[in-house]
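Lab notes, practical 5.
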Amino acid sequence: MGRMYAWATPKYLLKHMSIEEIFMYYDYGIEHEKNSSNILVNRIAVGLFGAKEKPKPIDGDQPDRKGFYKRHGSKIKRPRGGRV
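Output from the prediction step:
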């Protein structure tokens, strides 16, 4: 695996980070690379082979105004005469 950032040379990491931080940095980097490669492979499959994608949920992303006000309505601070 190459360096994730230009500043993250082995010399810099050894001088400025503990061994636990270096391992954490490395683990996060490996996880990021795996996620990136999965996204790339999926995009290639869709582009070249017309693989079917799962439809993205639209309804789940819509805000639930009634539920929000039911849960947080008493915590919302407004000036006198402000809209509800």
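Observations recorded by the TA: The chain has one domain: 10-75. The chain has a mean pLDDT of 80.
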